[in-house]
Amino acid sequence: MLLIGCFTNSIDLEQALASIEQAGIERRHIMTVGMKLLVEQAGSTRESDAIEVGMAWATACAVIGAAAGFGLAWGPIVWGLAGTVAGFGLGYGLKRIRQAGRPSPFAATVAPEVTVIVQCPAHKSDTVRSTMYRYGALSVGATGR
Amino acid sequence: MKNNSLQARYPFYRLSLFGVTYASVPRPAMVAWWSAAFPGFGHFIINQYARGILLTLTEIAINRLCRLNDAIVFTFCGRFDDARYVLQEKWVFGYIVIYLFAIWDSSRSARLQGSLRSLSRFERQPLSRMLIHPLEVQYIERKNPRTGLFYSLLFPGLGQLYNQRFCLAFYIMFWWWTYIGMSNVFGATIELLYGSAARSTTMLSAHWLMFMPSALGGAAYHAYRGTIEQNKLFREEQHMHLEKKYGRSEIEIFAESG
Asked: What does the alpha-carbon distance between residue B247 and residue B243 come to, in Å, rounded to a whole number?
């Protein structure tokens, strides 16, 4: 039968594969498929995320705020911090508007990045399945007898 | 690992005592901006650490000699005559040339490294995940970019330490201590909270304080982006490895149905 597990790229994944081999499954009965995520497919791997843009604006506004703050009542520390907060909000907000629909960089996303397919006799399927779950499989499915 | 990376014409990455070094793929405009914020930081982002460190040292020295930070503060306060008076003209021309060159060179190199990186993907190369050196254990691991960012904002340099770049980490930490000490920012903050704002401003050294936003932002960006890039490296390397190890699988998905 075939067992199919979805994993993230991790050291755990390699431990799962090593344990499955250790359990007596031959290497030629294991297949792995590296999955390309939708966000990578869009050719946006070089793009900056909203946090990066926020940091760039925050720094620029902090420099201006601190410099101008030397001549203002509350001083450079207050104006520098105000510039940081306002700059980050501005940069982050503008980028999020431009990337509407994309997941926020603050959201913890767990994507299936590698699919592992194991062909094994039915009596070993429970071992393989529990090994997959133990080493962080996001989901495991089975097909065939 | 040493021999392997020499064999490949476009090596994918190299593990060394100092951490993992690779051709990076940030947005060139972003690299240009960090060079503008603090010359040298753009080069840190694209892993050109030696010239990055020399550029930051140049920046700190020449900025001091031409009193640029003081002139910037006077300009933003509208005191243009004071700015003109404080600026030391003999250092200005060279400063401008090096400043603009650093911006141009880092963004140009970022663009080129993107191409080099995609070429290295086509080369089959034996890669190592881990390096055991008498002084260090270095490896590529998957990390959370926001964790490095968080520590970097508390104290610049810690994000680099999180990313295994320990020499750059202590270089940044050394300068951050210097900025704290020379600018008197913490003393001025306490004065601001419990005393008078006017006295707090006079306690500060404008020259040293003006380095702080750029150093803080640049170090935080470098840590955040570095983790993202190393995670990408981790994924691509693992895909290459699995392809090599399990690429000759004999699994038949469609068994003949009698």
From this structure: 5
Asked whether residue B232 is domain-assigned, the answer is yes
The pTM (predicted TM-score) of the whole model is 0.91
CB contact under 8 A, B214 and A63: yes
Q: Which two tokens stand for residue A75?
A: 């001083």
Q: Which residue range forms the structural domain that includes residue B169?
A: 4-246
Does the residue B201 lie in any domain?
Answer: yes
Interface of B with A in 97-136 (CB under 8 A): 114
Query: What's the gap between Cα B102 and its chain centre?
Result: 14
- B140 lies in a domain? yes
B3-50 pLDDT per residue, tens: 544 567 888 888 999 988 888 888 899 999 999 999 999 999 999 999
ipTM of the complex: 0.89
Helix/strand/coil (H, E, C) string of chain A? CEEEEEECCCHHHHHHHHHHHHCCCCHHHEEEEECCCHHHHCCCCCCCCHHHHHHHHHHHHHHHHHHHHCCCCCHHHHHHHHHHHHHHHHHHHHHHHHCCCCCCCCCCCCCCCEEEEEECCHHHHHHHHHHHHHCCCCEEEEECC
Nearest chain B Cα distance for residue A119, angstroms:
7
Does the distance separating the beta carbons of A30 and B249 come in below 8 Å? yes
Q: Which two tokens stand for residue B186?
A: 């913490």
Structural domains in chain B (count): 1
- Confidence band, pLDDT 50/70/90 cuts, at residue B258: very low
In a domain, B36, yes or no: yes
Task: Verify whether the Cβ–Cβ distance A76 to B204 is below 8 Å.
Answer: yes
Distance from CA of A93 to the nearest CA of B (A): 17
Contacts of A46 in chain B (CB under 8 A): 25-27, 114
Find the DSSP H helices in B121-211: 145-154, 158-162, 166-183, 185-194, 197-203, 206-209
CB contact under 8 A, A67 and B214: no
**Using a CB-CB distance cutoff of 8 angstroms, which residues of chain B are in contact with residue A52?**
30, 221, 224-225
- Give pLDDT tens digits for B71-116: 999 999 999 999 999 999 999 999 999 999 999 999 999 999 988 8
